[in-house]
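DM from R.C. (forwarded with permission)

"hey, sorry to bug you on a friday — could you get me a structure for this? deadline for the figure draft is monday and I only need the backbone to look sensible"
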Amino acid sequence: MSIRIVRNLGVLLLTLIALGAIAAWSLDSQSGDWTMRKADVQGKVHLSLIRDSGEGGHSQSGSDWPLDQFQGLDATTSARHDVKFTIAREAGRFECAGFLENGEGAGVFHFLPNPQFVEQMKALGFGGLDGDKQMAAALHDVTVEFAREMQAEHITGLDFDKLIAFRIFGVTRQFIEDLRSSGLNVTDSDKLVAFRIHGVTPEMVRSLHQEGYTPDEDQLIAMRIHGATSEWVAALAKVGYQHVDLDQLIAFRIHGVSPEFIGKLNDLGYKHLEADQLVAMRLHGATTEWIEALGRVGYDHIEPDQLIAFRIHGVSPEFIGKIQELGYKHPDADQLVAMRIHGVTPEYIAKLQSQGMHNLSADQLINLRIHGID
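My reply, with the result:
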């Protein structure tokens, strides 16, 4: 075989390889834009990857990355310069090109998936990986070893999407084992993600156990969502509410039963009300300012349940003041509520008085309204 023939065969072979590579790129690679800027942490940069999500939309993922993750990047030159670098991950690699100037820049990237990663994940039971999931795995550094670690923790609901979520939010083997060693035998994958999102920590669980609480997973999440911190719980104890039931603590936070609110009630003579009464007072707007206004029209030290009934039925300082002007100086609390329920308004009383019906008692007014006498 002549040298020319060999050369021609070599050129043909290289051409076929190149064509195959182009076909593979078009089928298997994903492309987009990247931007980079300095991060607040020394030795890191903030990298964002932007892709067209179709129909004119875009998807973007950005986070701080250590500089040593960018193979071939010249980040020391401050003047504008062209750059090429690679981010190599087990699931695939990002080939990036563009420019940098004073630590900031932009360019384009191509993601080249690793086919072996798909097969290895499939062997572990994580099948159905498409290009987007594989790219997400590379972006968030989901590895085969990480998948094995999570399987070894016997977590329920563990699929490939959960592996990505675990990496995004920082659910690690150490985090799971620390939670369990603190006394919480958590196995639900969704709860683990929620713990990281809302800040449920092993230290929080341990602290609650030391205080005598045995919270379940939903209570822990609710406490963090609504801000029932250990400091806030300690402040409640200082105003006389030690070891309040966890669900009631959460209700306190939802409805605004604060140590300050309780302290003001104490100053008004309402000492250590039941938790449900405190919640109901906040729910219906029985504020300390409103209670003080009731006192100014002669209704101080009203029972808590009657205060709540006043708010529910609209017995206000203004209502009391108007009927006092009409001669009803101090109906009892139940009469005031009944007057509001049955529609005994100042206008109704004034109308009856204009018709010559003076000196009717509160109960008589209520009976007239009940029987439809206008």
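R.C.: lifesaver. The mean pLDDT is 90.
me: no worries. Residues 285-374 form one domain.
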